[in-house]
Amino acid sequence: MFKALEENGGYIRDGAEAASLSHAQVVAAPASPEEVWLHAPDEPAERPGLFDRFADRCRRFEAWCAHVDLAPDLASEIGSRKWMRGLATFLGLSAAAIALWPDFSEVEAATAMPVEHRERDEFRSQSIAPLALGADSGRHMGASTLVKPLAHVPERPTIQLVSTLGQGDSFGRMLERAGVGGSDISRVSELVANALPVNDIASGTQFDITLGKRAAPNAPRALDAIDFRARFDLDLSIERGDDGNLSLVRHPIAVDETPLRIRGTVGSSLYRSARNAGAPVAAIQSYLQAVDKYLRLEDDIGSSDEYDMIVAYKRSAKGERQVGKLLYAGIERDGKPRLQLLRWGKGDQMFSASSIDRPRAVPIGQPVAGRITSRYGMRRHPILGYVRMHAGLDFGARYGSPIYAVADGTVTYAGRHGGHGKYVRIQHSGGLGTGYAHMSRIAVSSGTHVRAGQVIGYVGSTGLSTGPHLHLEAYRNGHTINPAGLSIMSRPQIAGEEREAFKARLKSLLTVEPGAALGTIAPVTSAHAEAEREIDRLAPKKVG
């Protein structure tokens, strides 16, 4: 007989030793599905129902899922049990997704009308698709009662095209590519040669060509007309007359050759000032090279001085403009000319107006594009290691830079010269001479007469040299002197009647007003040359 004694939350057998649990133990003990239910003998035990068992299993599964991570990070703990469990989850989900992948099948739709192969091919030939796919049906137009084949396809009576003479191309090959026949090419070349040499036609010249009917089915088309710009002042047209023969027609173009004169104040930079005034880059470069032979650009020209340059300039009645060579270069100070240089003679050289009739000391020019790295005087030799005389100027420059003669003279030596390496020596007037050492390559030979500014070699590092540079020496009567500030006497090169012509030319150029060449001249219309162009015929006409 059990007697329930409620003591500390438990049951004890009657007469047995009592056992008790503390309150903390009772609270801390979790409820589990496996707990034992104790019932009094007189109370029958109730078995849990189906719903209770299912709910109990769900609670246990939820507790297990909360405790176990089914989708861990597969990038960490690779190979562990946790990682393998995550891999199993991944594979399982992937298999489920593939198993539930939907099925795709073609859905056929009935056409609006039954179309056989022949009708389908006809539709295709009349659509835009053949144009894009190269007309793969092989038909120009689907066969029908409205389409009839032609025995002979008519050709256009004339073809008008534009052909361009390319670089290195010949006049005859250009006409041949345009479709002109051989006999017409020979005749056209003969006619053009009467106006100017065919080889003088500049590359890039465009030819407006009109081809007529063929004399036979497989013969080339006859040339009806050809128009092109032969020179800056001349248009040429070749036309086929009523008698069937080709003839040449000249269309002269009015050209004004007033030189372009540009003046201004030097300011902080002569180059920038001239560019701001609209001077062409090539003209400015020629101007600086010419002036540099007589004046030092850094020291002898002040910011308040005025520059004056005149360049050859052409403008045609059609609006084209052509810039030529530098004709005059001048420097003025306080309104008085300090330097006047004029291009003159067959050699196309710049001569000073003040030295045409008397000798004049001219400062030597810059021998190379670089800066002075070592001056004339005693110094420690960088290779030999002891102090000795450095009998020249060293100019630091890039390897292969051109070396220029500083003045007119005759080459007396060109070749290897001991520690100078590859060396050139030039004898000038007045017993003066110059030497150029350490060249990589020599561009002149002994006995050659050279002019100031002519290339005589290239910068190198031959001989006793630690790097690419130019060593410039100067001699007077065989003894070395300091090249810095050296001037060479220039002999009169223009005399007699030529001197008077020189002065007349200089006076004529100085009468040109600055900017006078920038105006426009009245255009002269060439009805044939302009109206026959294809682009003009395609232009919309103005009405009213």
UniProtKB/TrEMBL annotation:
Gene3D superfamilies found in the cross-reference section: 3.10.450.350, Glucose Permease (Domain IIA)
Every M23ase beta-sheet core domain range: 388-483
Source domain of life: Bacteria
CDD domains: M23_peptidase
Coiled-coil segments on the chain, per record: none
Pfam families referenced in this protein's UniProt entry, alphabetically: Peptidase_M23
Entry keyword set: Signal
Protein name, entry field: M23ase beta-sheet core domain-containing protein
Organism listed in the record: Novosphingobium indicum
